[in-house]
Amino acid sequence: GGLQVKFRAKGKIYFGTCADPNTLNIASNTNVLKKDFGQLTPENSMKWDATEPSRGNFNFGNADTLVNWATSNGKLIRGHTLVWHSQLPGWVNNINDRNTLVCVNLRQNPLEMKVLISSKLQTTVIQNHAQSVAGREIFNEDGSLRSSVFSRVLGESFVTIAFQAARKADPAAVLYINDYNLDSANAKVRGLVNLVNRVNQANPGTIDGAGTQMHLQANGAGGAQAALNALAAADVKEVAITELDIVNASANDYTAVVRACLNTPKCVGITVWGVSDANSWRSGSNPLLFDRSYNPKAAYTAIINML
Ligand code: XIL
Questions:
Q1: What is the pLDDT of residue 166?
Q2: What ligand 1 atom has the least distance to the C-alpha of 47?
Q3: What's the CA gap between 135 and 144, in Å, rounded?
Q4: Which of 50, 264, 285, 300 could form a disulfide with 289 if both were Cys (CB 3.0 to 4.6 A apart)?
Q5: What gap in Å lies between CA 146 and CA 112, rounded to an integer?
Q6: What pTM was computed for the model?
Q7: What does the angle CA 160 – CA 75 – CA 49 come to, to the nearest 5 degrees?
Q8: How many domains in the chain?
Q9: Nearest CA to ligand 1 atom 16
Q10: Ligand 1 test: best mutation among 46, 86, 179, 271, most atoms within 8 Å of CB?
């Protein structure tokens, strides 16, 4: 079996990757998706600049293509991303009053998104235990809240507002907070854990899960287990590795990360950020499990052998 089948046999939910229409058009890529991966995350098509480029004008063309492909091929879907400082359309960045940002964007926008994404995404979510990502990359490296249009206008309350809006829009979705550089038990991990605990103590059950992206450097997997342990100790039901890629993709680095998830009961899955080095956002560092001809690399074989 491929990665998904073997990972599931170990009690995990998914071994996933990212995709979008541009990579779904490549037959050698979709062959790998069908065989090895059980979950798809839209690489760009559900970001705010893609879904609502100007206020009130929604575009779900690419997102629907991804959802349709995943649904017809029996793949789970991980939504990505609802509220994030990056890849925002200019009109959101320029909002500076609280009511507009809360009422129009954080409260209403997810509701509209749900209506417009339509029953397609909703049934997929319900039937396939899909996951939604609500808060992303909101911390500075020292664990404090990062400056963004959201934190500047609303302070920390935007986190609760966004999660409550997402919950209302889709009660079946599993809602994650997610960030990068959560690769060891560092200050940023502590900041995230403290925020999650504050939010969930004030409003129990607001945040379901914590995700660590894990865009790692070569030999950078040494802290993965400590990071997952710390995240899993927060007041969350589950944790996940959400965007894994590793410079040079050594077998040792990859197996260390997979082992860390296997050893963490709350870790439900791993998403690698792409299939082939040819299509990676870090293409120059060859960070993925398949080479430019879509053939499995040594790290792939090492993972298969350990599962
Ligand atoms: C990246 C995509 O892979 C690129 O195609 C795009 O140009 C920029 O965004 N953290 C995230 C992802 O949360 O959404 C980013 O994806 C990589 C960093």
A1: 76
A2: 14
A3: 15
A4: 300
A5: 27
A6: 0.91
A7: 45
A8: 1
A9: 43
A10: 86
- The alpha carbon of 201 and the centre of ligand 1 are apart by a number of angstroms equal to 31
CATH number of the domain bearing residue 299: 3.20.20.80
Lowest mean pLDDT among 96-100, 175-179, 187-191, 197-201: 96-100
User: Phi and psi dihedrals of 176, rounded to 5?
Assistant: -115, 145
Q: What is the three-class DSSP state of 163? A: helix
Cβ–ligand 1 contact at 170 (below 6 Å): no
pLDDT tens digits, 206-243 = 999 999 999 999 999 999 999 999 999 999 999 999 99
Q: Report the mean per-residue pLDDT for the chain.
A: 85
Query: Could you read off the pLDDT of 110-125 as tens digits, one per residue?
Result: 433 433 333 333 333 3
For ligand 1, whether the C-beta of 44 sits within 6 Å is: yes
Clarify whether 52 is annotated catalytic.
no
Identified catalytic residue from 43, 52, 137, 156: 137
Q: Ligand 1: distance of its center to the CA of 82 in Å?
A: 14
Residue 137 falls in the annotated catalytic set: yes
Find the domain containing 173 and state its range.
3-306
Distance CA 217, CA 248 (A): 8
